[in-house]
Design goal:
With about 375 residues, the protein is mainly alpha-helical. The chain is built from 14 helices and 2 strands, in the order ααααααααααααααββ. The two termini are about 40 Å apart.
Length: about 375
């Protein structure tokens, strides 16, 4: 180990120890840096997702007869149409289901109260339970009175919220512009980044960095493409099945399941469970239970027949690694982390596997060279 390497290791150890002993300040500093570059990061994220339909359009137009700005425009139109369809299908029916649910809350409250009265036979408890009432008008009046009593605080909070919303909208607009700029000249940016890496880093290290970047890009593109396809297929199957069987709210439930399916492993099941709750509360308990039975059977068929064909080897992760990636990502970044950490874990898994194979090959070659008999004047000694 030379002096330069030793100095670098000591400096890294000092910085790591300082970050560990001042974890809160280090986290605040990292969050501050991320906040400064947030529009740029959002712009690159937007460019990444916009690049998925753009690549599909470019694969169709292999001779590049269509100008780039028209390809980007078509990609934007596709994304806007998908988002608009999801909102137009999901939001009105969710509002209608929520209204029906709130209207039935007094009925469910009385049913639960009567059930408790039949189980517990204590006079004091029964008197207290009979004194309870559930009146939506009374609850709304108390809520309005609470808002009026804290009107000044509410106005101040509203002003802060409005300021934050304006700032967020401005950041989103800037990110949108940055994303369009990145997509419009993505080949030039990739070429410039490769030249910078090769110019300032040793050739062996530079090639490994570039190879890792390409592997990461392919992992994320493959994962999101396959996950979107699988979510769309599952949503369509749920919608068709509900229409054939005659379940209520087929379009709302199918959209909820498709959105939930973007989260690996248990996202679709959680979305289906939420939809079953809405069905049971708005219509009947049997509708919710029969829908869950239908969804479990459908998910088993989809998971064993369709999912392997769609995903194939795009993830390349054992199930345990996927589960760990979802758990760690959820604890670190919430729902976004559950989605983003799966392809990241795939990249880490491939890098570790590649390094293990390389080291095993080196050890095997070293052992073979040591066990090879020496030769003198072309004749083997032994």
């Amino acid at each position: 180990m030379n002096k330069k390497t030793a100095a670098q290791l000591i400096a890294f150890g000092v910085l790591l120890a300082a970050a560990v002993f001042n974890l809160r300040d280090a986290a605040a500093a990292v969050n501050g840096v991320i906040g400064v570059f947030k529009p740029v990061l959002l712009g690159f994220a937007f460019a990444f997702f916009l690049n998925i339909p753009l690549c599909l359009i470019q694969n169709i137009d292999k001779k590049n007869r269509t100008p780039r700005f028209l390809q980007i425009l078509f990609s934007l139109i596709v994304v806007i149409i998908i988002v608009a369809c999801v909102l137009l299908i999901l939001v009105p029916q969710l509002i209608q289901s929520a209204s029906a649910l709130f209207a039935k809350l007094p009925y469910w409250f009385e049913q639960i109260k009567q059930f408790a009265l039949r189980i517990y036979n204590y006079p004091q408890f029964n008197d207290w339970l009979n004194s309870l009432t559930f009146n939506l008008d009374d609850i709304a009046g108390r809520f309005i009175g609470f808002l009026r009593s804290g009107a000044f605080d509410a106005i101040s909070s509203a002003a802060n919220v409005a300021t934050g919303v304006v700032g967020d909208v401005t950041g989103v607009v800037i990110a949108f512009i940055i994303g369009l700029g990145v997509v419009s000249c993505k080949e030039r940016l990739c070429s410039q980044a490769s030249r910078v890496i090769r110019a300032f880093i040793k050739p062996s290290h530079a090639e490994r960095i570039i190879s890792t970047c390409r592997m990461t890009h392919h992992a994320y593109v493959g994962f999101f493409s396959a996950q979107l396809t699988e979510a769309a297929i599952l949503g369509i199957l749920v919608m068709l099945g509900m229409l054939i069987i005659g379940f209520p709210r087929p379009f709302m439930v199918a959209t909820m399941v498709a959105i939930g399916a973007l989260i690996p492993l248990f996202g679709a099941f959680v979305a289906a469970l939420t939809a079953a709750f809405f069905l049971a509360a708005e219509f009947s308990l049997s509708d919710g239970c029969w829908f869950m039975a239908f969804f479990i059977i459908l998910q088993q068929i989809e998971g064993n027949v369709i999912y392997p064909r769609v995903m194939g080897s795009r993830i390349g992760l054992p199930s345990v690694w996927v589960l760990m990636a979802v758990v760690v990502g959820g604890n670190a970044m919430g729902i976004a982390g559950m989605i983003l950490f799966v392809p990241l874990a795939s990249v880490v898994y491939q890098l570790i596997a590649h390094e293990v194979k390389r080291r095993e090959k080196v050890k095997c070659e070293t052992a073979t060279a040591q066990n090879r008999p020496e030769s003198v004047d072309g004749k083997t000694v032994g």
